[in-house]
Amino acid sequence: MKTKRFDVSSIGESMLRLSIPAGNRLENTRALDVGTAGAEGNVLNALGHLGRSCAWVSGLPDNPLGRLAANHLRKADVNLDGVIWRDAGRMGVYFVEFSTPPRPIQVIYDRVDSVIASLTPDQIDWAFLLDTRLLHLTGITPALSASCAAIVAESIQRAKAQNVPISFDMNYRGKLWTPEEARAAVTPLLQEIDLFFCARGDAEVVFDCTGEPEKMLQQLVQLSNARTVIMSIGEQGVIAWRDGQIYREPSVPVEVVDRIGAGDGLAAGVIHGWLKEDLVLGLRYGVTMAALALTEHGDTVTTSRAELDALVNSASGGVWR
Question: Which among 114, 141, 217, 300 has most CB atoms closer than 10 A?
Fold first, then answer.
């Protein structure tokens, strides 16, 4: 069998992230912290730092902002040969207003008509995208536009035809579409995937799952033909199902610095273990990567394979000398 070029490939949007720290209000701020974000890119970025060979397909404007997003992924050695560059167009932007209780963190999107939203299936380099051991997709991309939904559907169809396993993270965004719209669009896709990630909140809102975590997990299993289903359950950690067996992994105690990106860290860790054909280890990697995401500013996790293995095998942080 021919060796695949990449461990993981993905397609999705990259956005500019502009944030202010807790204690400030966006309407009064005079300065913003600049970063980049995007669920699929976050996963690939984390896996790239772990030494995995990754490829990302998207659309970016050929301007300094597009190059900023590309450079962020290049630092993790993510291959960008499948990116479609446009002379005209824009990147999506999202603003984050961090806060402390009783106010929640506020996210404001400005992503309509971004370059990726106008891409069509015939523009994708399918041979590049599918030369991989695993295709990772999310429920964000089909919410961006009808053509993006068509791209996701065709990517799944082509991956199945070429026996490429598919990972799918629900990643519901209520500011992009309604639960009813998401459920109608995503449910058919779930019949063709191999790994299904879904946070407990998304399971409740999108798929009307109810009850204790084990019961909700079984309901997700019934919705999908995935061999492996992973449901994050917040501070309780993660619960997973594979071939009729349920697995649990508790969360890692953490002091939160930035709450955004933990779900992508979890997915990256589980996939890292999946590539080793070890789900139990993948769940440990996942909760550890999620904890690391919470300790770092920005949406992505920067760690190494050696550091991750050491953290998984250690009881606490302490001081490394």
Answer: 300
